[in-house]
Amino acid sequence: MVHYDHGMLGATLAVAVGAQRRLGWPAVALAALAAMFPDWDAMSKHISPRTYQAGHRVWDTTCSQ
Fold it and tell me: N or C of the chain: less Cβ packing under 10 Å?
């Protein structure tokens, strides 16, 4: 899955539980953004492989502490 897939899944689940009726559409957008969070470290891959390796190393270091 890529970040688009995660975002669509988060939005779909938010709509499925009726978040847009209780909290409004901004809640659905927030669910989509939150669902994309695991892929944000891969966004640097679009700049260059070297940038991705440097950024991914930072994420791995901070998450393992």
Answer: C
